[in-house]
């Protein structure tokens, strides 16, 4: 049973050098693998064999975040508009109902 008030942020997003921002919704955490079907020419069976192919990652969307007083995220987003994208490792954590717990 949840205690009230329910925490405002449900996801914690971190990236180097340790900046952390809370978001209420994160979408696009999916990965798909293409299927490669083939039939070997000397196979006596009349069916195709399936193997995993290339992997596809979805675009991640972060919604309703709050980063009051921390403009590092805003500065990073400005690099995208200037077409000089700086890639960073990002960790997305799903938070528990208890504040500060994962």
Your description of this structure?
The chain is mainly beta and 102 residues long. The longest helix has 10 residues, at 72-81. It is built from 1 helix and 6 strands, in the order E-E-E-E-E-H-E. A hairpin with a 3-residue loop joins strand 1 and strand 2 (19-27). The protein is 10% helix and 41% strand. The strands form 2 sheets. The chain has a 4-stranded antiparallel sheet with strand order 5-2-1-6, with no helix packed on it.
Blueprint (SSEs and pairs):
Elements: E1 11-15, E2 19-27, E3 31-38, E4 49-57, E5 61-66, H1 72-81, E6 90-94
Antiparallel strand pairs: 1-2, 1-6, 2-5, 3-4
Helicity, as a percent range: under 10%
Structural class: mainly beta
- Strands ordered across the widest β-sheet: 5-2-1-6
Number-wise, the strands total 6
Number of helices: 1
Summarize the structure.
The chain is built from one helix and six strands; from the N terminus they run βββββαβ. The protein has 102 residues and is mostly beta strands.
